[in-house]
């Protein structure tokens, strides 16, 4: 499970860096900052409008990958195994106080049962 989480974190990190880089390379509406990086040339590999279309599609794919990895990591981080309820459908609990009927018939058993129900008076406050 640890290897799976590590792999998903690496994919998420790479997709986040890819989205950041692609957003910085794209043209804005009136800002020619993308031309400073060489993506404004009309004789480029994708043509005048092909690079904008390619960059926007690639950004959308990487954003979708980032979104899916984020949801996957959230699911894996919130998953907690629940204890089994057992055959009867309820978890077994230990009795808190022993009853007087289960004490031995001698006088010391009755004394122990009555002493257990009385709070201690010698405890400092």
Q: How widely separated are the two ends?
A: 50 Å
Mean pLDDT: 74
The rough form would be described as: elongated
Number of DSSP-assigned strands: 0
Verbal overview:
By secondary structure, the chain is an all-alpha fold. The chain has a domain at 49-79. The protein contains four helices and no strands. The protein is elongated. The mean pLDDT is 74.
Please give a handful of descriptors for the protein shown:
cell membrane, mainly alpha, about 120 residues, about 55% helix, Protein-export membrane protein SecG, membrane, about 0% strand, elongated
Record the SSE blueprint.
Elements lengths: L1 H24 L7 H4 L13 H29 L28 H11 L8
Helix pairs in contact: 1-3
GO cellular component, one term: plasma membrane
Family: Belongs to the SecG family.
Pfam families: SecG
Summed up, what is this model?
With 125 residues, this protein is mainly alpha-helical. It has helices at 2-25, 33-36, 50-78, 107-117.
């Amino acid at each position: 499970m640890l290897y799976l989480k590590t792999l998903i974190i690496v994919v998420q990190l790479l997709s986040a860096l890819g989205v950041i880089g692609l957003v910085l390379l794209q043209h804005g509406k009136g800002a020619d900052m993308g031309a400073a990086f060489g993506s404004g040339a009309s004789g480029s590999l994708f043509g005048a409008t092909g690079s904008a279309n390619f960059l926007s599609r690639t950004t959308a794919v990487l954003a979708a990958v980032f979104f899916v990895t984020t949801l996957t990591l959230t699911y894996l981080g919130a998953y907690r195994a629940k204890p089994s309820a057992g055959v009867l459908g309820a978890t077994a609990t230990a009795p808190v106080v022993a009853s007087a009927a289960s004490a031995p018939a001698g006088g010391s058993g009755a004394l122990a049962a009555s002493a257990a129900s009385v709070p201690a008076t010698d405890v400092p406050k």
